[in-house]
Amino acid sequence: MSYLETAAQFYSEVAQTPQVGLCCVQSTPLQLPGLKIPRKMQEMNYGCGTTVHSTELGNQPTVLYVGVGGGLEALQFAYFSQRSGAVIAVDPVAEMRQAAVRNLEIAAQENPWFDTSFVEIREGDAFNLPVGDNSVDIVAQNCLFNIFEPEDLTRALQEAYRVLKPGGKLQMSDPIATRPIPQHLQKDERLRAMCLSGALTYEEYIQRIISAGFGQVEIRARRPYRLLDSQTYDIEENLLLESLDSVAFKVIIPEDGACVFTGKTAIYAGPEPFFDDDAGHILQRGIPASVCDKTAAKLAALMPDKIMMTDSTWYYNGGGCC
Ligand SMILES: C[S@@+](CC[C@H](N)C(=O)[O-])C[C@H]1O[C@@H](n2cnc3c(N)ncnc32)[C@H](O)[C@@H]1O
């Protein structure tokens, strides 16, 4: 059996017998006015963060959701679009698709605004998405791509890129590892399926996203996820896993490299009222300006005594204070 088959078998099991808290770090999912999440769906919250960024879902986007789980985030996305077929949710595991259908039927009984036609559940997998090129506004996946071995992760990212419209967004939440996960754990297919041993480091993960063609990546959240302790996992030192919420944009990669926003700001502290780097960044004296990590490094090297650089907040959604 391949590791992907092991994962499919595992998710067939947890579709039939929900495992509360399997991946999730948020005991209370995103609360929205008028949205009631059925208890069964909540018990099947197998995501490690959120891909539903509520302030960014105007204009009723078409969403392709990969790895439907119990349907929680598909329902949350449907809340923002509220039209037939707005969310297409894909899963290769029949038992998981059936569980999601059942949960969404309960959701329709509990939420007057929701119609089951808003979410269309299709058989398919991350490597072969059942939609055309350039056809959706958002691709979302939560706690699935970390299961994939690196080359498969690249295939899944490329497939997401294919189906997104130009300018479209890949919204992901995945565990990342604070140092490389030892081989014996990486090879443990069951741990991998449980989102405990396939995680890449932050740098490797972001590089794979960029290599698939995404020109801009924004980090929405980074938080502790799980601890692989030395005794249980037979490793020299405890290893912290974090969960990372990101949004990657299908835009051209600039000549000098992709832009990754992690919440850094640059603050000009020189004698002039403002500083213009002639590359599109104008810094007013004393006022923080959000910059991507590439620009932060360039500006810091250019004038270390006159431009202060703040640390990554790991919480970026456009910057600005008002
Ligand atoms: C960790 S669960 C996450 C479920 C959901 N995203 C959530 O947040 O609750 C992974 C999901 O991906 C599905 N899955 C497994 N292998 C897959 C594949 N190759 N392509 C797409 N989905 C897959 C599983 O059946 C399961 O529904």
From TrEMBL:
Residues 64-170 form the Methyltransferase type domain. GO terms for biological process: methylation. InterPro entries: Methyltransf_11 (IPR013216), SAM-dependent_MTases_sf (IPR029063). Pfam families: Methyltransf_11 (PF08241). It comes from the Bacteria. Keywords: Methyltransferase, Transferase. GO terms for molecular function: S-adenosylmethionine-dependent methyltransferase activity. PANTHER family: 2-METHOXY-6-POLYPRENYL-1,4-BENZOQUINOL METHYLASE, MITOCHONDRIAL, METHYLTRANSFERASE. This is SAM-dependent methyltransferase.
